[in-house]
Amino acid sequence: MPRRFLSRLLTVTALGLWSGLASAQPTPSEKARVAEMAGAINELMTSLEQRAEDYPAFLDQLEQGLVSIDEADATVAELIENLSNATAQMEDGSEFDTAIDDYKTQTTELIAEAEASNNSIIKAEVPNLQAVLEGLEEDDEARARTVIEARNLIRTLEENREAIAFFIKADSVQRAAELIRANVVDFSEIIDSGKMVASNLLDETSP
């Protein structure tokens, strides 16, 4: 409805240019000018409609940033808790560690069985099984080393809870500032386009 109203307004304004020529037809340049003005108004309306459509999502993003700031301390606590739980799952004596030990035992027994076998096909698997056992040993050692590193990391995070929460908040503020600036720039560009349309209308209707 507003777009049709503006188009009619433009048409009436343009027709005013020809009011002194009751029987005359608009020239090609006059037609082009009207088409240009109509196009500018349509672009302005499209921009405003798109802005209205995008606005709820924009507000949601700003709100989410505020939520992130409010929940920063809880986020850090959850991070440390999740890391602690993951570390516990890798500790000596954990189900995972026990499973590794069980597979090392199974592999060792298979190697002994293969070495004692009179079947050449089975015996040929000894080198492969030894490589598997070595891999399990290496992975178990890596697990133990990583657990120590994880404990150190947890301790560091615990000691720097405030700093981590601060950077979460700072990141939310920076992201929001970028969104706000982009929104202001977009609005300014729309207003500039509207001012240009208004200026052209005034020029056309000036005596």
What does this structure look like?
Residues 1-24 form the signal peptide. Keywords: Signal. The chain is mostly helical and 207 residues long. It has two domains: 1-70 and 187-207, no CATH class; 71-159. 87% of the residues lie in helices and 0% in strands. The protein has seven helices and no strands. It has helices at residues 2-16, 28-70, 72-88, 95-116, 120-123, 126-159, 161-205. The longest helix is centred in the last third of the chain and has 45 residues, at 161-205. The two termini are 30 Å apart.
User: Would you count the extended β strands for me?
Assistant: 0
In total, the number of domains comes to 2
Q: Please tally the helical runs, counting DSSP H or I stretches of 4 or more residues.
A: 7
Helix content: over 70%
Radius of gyration: 37 Å
Could you name the ranges where pLDDT drops below 50 across 5 or more consecutive residues?
9-23
Describe this protein with a few key phrases.
about 210 residues, mainly alpha, about 85% helix
Summarize the structure.
The protein has 207 residues and is mainly α.
What's the topology here?
Layout: H1 2-16, H2 28-70, H3 72-88, H4 95-116, H5 120-123, H6 126-159, H7 161-205
